[in-house]
Amino acid sequence: MKKWAVALTSGMVMFSANAMSQESVHLYTWTEYVPEGLLEQFTKETGIKVVVSTLESNETMYAKLKIQGKDGGYDVIAPTNYFVSKMAREGMLMELDHSKLPVIKELNPDWLDKPYDKGNKYSLPQLLGAPGIAYNTGSYQGSSFTSWGDLWKEEYKGKVQLLDDAREVFNIALLKLGQDPNTQDPAVIKAAYEELLKLRPNVLSFSSDNPANSFIAGEVEVGQLWNGSIRIAKKEQAPVDMVFPKEGPVLWVDNLAIPSNAKNPDAAHKLINYLLSAPVAEKLTLEIGYPTSNVKALEVLPKEITEDPAIYPTAEVLQKSHWQDDVGEAIELYEKYYQELKAAK
């Protein structure tokens, strides 16, 4: 998903251990998914240096890989679930060799074999994202927000922050209307747009670049946030909490996959196995809050994370959740209406 816009110098960071000619593997992932020191142990263990490039959005990643064609450039990428299905369908992903990925046995089976990649033929899940309604605990109570429709209430005029993402914003209107958040029906998408125009007077801002910052600074008191963002806010001791409405959140999973044009697939398998391993998964969730797919890491993570229902959705919430999926060419219609929504007053 679209997340923090912090840029790495020249788009990449190199971790080297030995000579300039040593083997390397190219990782293209979200900026916050590579906190300081995360990859150094991999280089020590394997002698392989990791070249990290910043992934700005799924759309940008997709376009870059299309342009590269057979030339390649990345060995491991981190597509969100609905882009896994799209890229696999278009022959852009390499089939994984599960015999080289023993970490699979440590992954939560509830995260595996999902419709977007049956049998995990092309990808393995890393982190789970769930958007909810965040609120300032000094001004509101969680019981005030039971439905996505509550954001439309007149009392929140000029107070609501939405995530700056067409699908995330349309999801709440579609759920409010009782529609499928993955609809490709132009008439239903238009109806959702018209519903969002009714919400527009309440919208103070759109933000996906570390959206917790506005809550931490006290600039916003109500709005959409991802569960990882709530972890960031709570680490800063901000008076913020989050609830998941009765219609459920629309979940996404960021995965690890190998492009079909990867130059070093053997090293790519090693890196995926490392990134999903319990020690690394634990460190990453501690740093950025998103729930990890590794059950061994889950066992040792602090309860302030794993038992916080705003960060780790409960079984009840997960049961009524929806999975974000590829909407094909309909994405152009979503984006068109979304730009019109942002320009509206």
Automatic annotation (TrEMBL):
Any one Gene Ontology cellular component term annotated for this protein: periplasmic space
Signal peptide extent: 1-19
Alphabetic keyword roster: Periplasm, Signal, Transport
Domain of life, per lineage: Bacteria
GO molecular function: polyamine binding
InterPro entries: SBP (IPR006059), Sperm_putr-bd (IPR001188)
GO biological process terms held by the UniProt record: polyamine transport
Binding-site positions, spermidine: 32, 82, 165-168, 324
CDD domains linked to this entry: PBP2_PotD_PotF_like (cd13590)
Kinase recorded as keyword: no
Primary location recorded for the protein, binned into one broad class: periplasm
Subcellular location: Periplasm
Family: Belongs to the bacterial solute-binding protein PotD/PotF family.
Stated role: Required for the activity of the bacterial periplasmic transport system of putrescine.
Protein name: Putrescine-binding periplasmic protein
Origin species: Muribacter muris
